[in-house]
Amino acid sequence: MPVSRRDFVKTSVLGAVAAGVGTRAQGEDAKPAAQEHDSQSGSHKRPIIVCANNGFNYLDDAFAFLRSGGDTLDAALRVVKGPEDDPNDDSVGLGGLPNEEGVVELDACCMHGPTRRAGSVGGVRNIKNVSLVSKAVMEHTGHVMLVGEGAERFAVAMGFPRENLLTEHSRKIWLLWKEFHSTDDWWGPGLADPHWQAPDSKPNNDKPQAEVWQERIQNLQARAADLGIEPELQLAAVRKVLFPPTGTIHCSALNEKGEISGCTTTSGLAFKLPGRCGDSPIIGAGCYTDQDVGSAGATGSGEENIKVAGAHTIVENMRHGMSPQEAGMDALKRIVRNYNGDMNKLRFIDMTYYILRKDGAYSGVSLWEGYSEGHPHKIAIHDGSRRAEVTVNLLKGYSQEFPPFPNIPEDLKKGSEYLK
Ligand code: GLY
Q1: What are the b/e assignments for 190-214, b being 16+ CB within 10 Å?
Q2: Which of 120, 182, 198, 245 makes a 20 to 30 Å CA pair with 110?
Q3: Which residue, by CA, sits nearest to atom 5 of ligand 1?
Q4: Which of 248, 266, 289, 391 is catalytic?
Q5: pLDDT, tens digit (0-9, with 9 covering 90-100), for 32-86
Q6: Which of 265, 248, 315 is nearest to 76 (CA)?
Q7: Residue 277 has what pLDDT?
């Protein structure tokens, strides 16, 4: 596999995209999301469902349900249940990538706009449809959030079956991660620590970085083959080991009457510490819906999104007059601000927001263009026609460079320019 340095100047951090001005990802025909549908355009439709792109295949059924009078939260839950049930989606529900001990732990939350209620579960083991469990918390308890063993026991009491959520494929990726990270794990200071160093900028490494990474990737691929990971899935597994993903699905649904709801579900950050909850079960971070304004949800770096209360920030921004796109860009800029625009850290962070206003205006915005060239972030939409649109990105380039580069040259550190 080639590990030569990509055209860094072209594809990475040359400058911010000012709020409201998206760039087209290279090799993509799709238009940046929201350019024609943002509030300024006046082109809004109801009913409408928006979600992360891994919900695309489930939109037809959910949209038909919504159009025939189905409840907005039930419509959104129909979308996210698809990936939860799919053993091949390793970011959600059954088959989700496990924690560092090899145990799948799921998080989810939901908000029902018409009745202004919320439910949430965190760190749930052995139950795949945690989005539905979050709804059960909302409907059948006087609480909003249940976590861990208590949440699992509640789910069983409500009739949800216990099952092993670790598929063979996810188990093998976890084993690959264990072997690669035998001297490295999630303990210790994180990205936000002032003394944090990118792994490849540690001292005492005389070899050229390209060589180091080539070796690492070749070793990992060989181990993946030994573990029985199919050849066509080996590089994807290597990537997940090097850059543990936070794949998630959010969905918001709005009916003709203007009722709106949202939900988010995830297996969280791969190989996390047991008990870690990300943003997805946090009302106001991974999802927030206000019947008076709209709904928003997130996929991406959960820790960063919690710190800016992303979904709530976006809904409040819309309440105060921002368009969906402006509201999302403002939340992304708060993440950039939390790192003082330091691109050596921000390149390891990514965030996508899915935003739906009560009048049907929507936007998909992301911190970076995508994970790699040709794989832009997308938002999926159904408003009578089902489609996926490229999100509008705040920063040019891709998160989690593969392989990561030792250091971003001083003259490319333009972080402060992003800040207003
Ligand atoms: N955004 C999902 C997570 O960080 O857990």
Answers
A1: ebeeeeeebeeeeeeeeeebeebbb
A2: 245
A3: 268
A4: 248
A5: 454 444 443 445 789 999 999 999 999 999 999 999 999 999 999 999 999 999 9
A6: 265
A7: 97
Does residue 286 contact residue 304 with C-beta atoms inside 8 Å? no
pLDDT higher than 70, residue 11: no
Query: Based on the domain organization, do 391 and 278 belong to the same domain?
Result: yes
Q: Count Cα atoms within 13 angstroms, Cβ side, for 164.
A: 6
Tokens found for residue 360: 């049907």
Ligand 1 pocket test, candidate residues 248, 335, 349, most atoms within 8 A of CB? 248
Residue that is written with structure tokens 């297996």 in the block: 267
Q: Residues 255-276: pLDDT tens digits? A: 999 999 999 999 999 999 999 9
Q: Are residues 72 and 142 in the same domain?
A: yes
Q: List the CATH number of the domain containing 305.
A: 3.60.20.30
User: Quick one: 393 exposed, middle or buried, by C-beta within 10 A (0-12, 13-18, 19+)?
Assistant: buried
What is residue 152's three-state secondary structure?
Answer: helix
Q: Is the pLDDT of residue 103 over 80?
A: yes
Sorted by sequence, the CB contacts under 8 Å of residue 11 that are 6+ apart come out as: 26, 373, 396, 397, 398
Read off the pLDDT band of 183 (50, 70, 90).
Answer: low
Provide the domain count of the chain. 2
Give the number of the atom of ligand 1 that is nearest the alpha carbon of residue 268: 5
Mean pLDDT within 184-205: 65
Q: Are 110 and 131 a contacting pair, CB within 8 Å?
A: yes
248 catalytic, yes or no? Answer: yes
Asked if residue 191 belongs to a domain, the reply is no
43 CA to centre of ligand 1 in angstroms: 32
* Average pLDDT of span 276-286: 98
Q: Kindly report the protein residue whose alpha carbon is nearest to atom 4 of ligand 1.
A: 302
Between the CA of 371 and the centroid of ligand 1 the distance, in Å, is 16
Ligand 1, from 54, 106, 269, 399: best to mutate by most atoms within 8 Å of Cβ?
Answer: 269
Q: What is the pLDDT of residue 276?
A: 97
Is the C-alpha dihedral spanning 402, 412, 346, 308 positive or negative? negative
